[in-house]
Amino acid sequence: MSDFSVDDLSVWETNAAFWDACMGDDSNPFHREVVHPGVTELLSPQAGDVILDIACGNGNYSAFMARRGARVLAFDQSPAMIALARKRQRPFRDKIEFCVADAANLESLLLLQSTPPLSKAVSCMAIMDISDIRPLFQALQTLLADKGIFVFATQHPCFVTLTKQYRTEHAYLGEAIAGQPCKQRYYHRSMQEIFRCCFDAGFVIDGFLEAYYRNPEIPEVIIVRARKS
Fold first, then answer.
1. Would you say 147 and 227 are in contact if contact means Cβ atoms under 8 Å apart?
2. What pLDDT was estimated at residue 5?
């Protein structure tokens, strides 16, 4: 991976208030129209589910799942973001537990063990923000109940990148929302590498969608359902 003088945590601490204001209670049009419908189709959150929301941001998708009757354990690496999520989602405090954890750190993730075990896990557009996704898939093999699922949406690696490299893992700086205070680091991985992380951790893929925003011939997002085998 390329190295920049950018610390991922400090970026999200700086961007937290801006991100919360832009995403609000119902997220932005891209997430509402492209990401959330496909994620919801493959995740099917419902009453009785115990769901881990990975890199939850301000918790608006956590609240959506809570309204469907699910119990949600939501985490983000940024303490500032979690503080804003707790404030914004206060009406759902009996359904959502927010905490700080590092999605790239196995020990941090294993502290999220739940009783009863998690039935599902979800990540809405965060895989490309995580420096190393292998610990996340490894941890989910422990955290999820038998046949539990992990649904994640991320940038389509074939079509969304600011570089000319596809096969080689690398990182670059960009912005998710125009005008955000600080650029973030994106971690590019080929589709093969993303799927390999699933398979190496013992998951099978049994759901896959490509979603677009403006041009129906150029999808910007892949949405994957990985099932614990």
1. yes
2. 41
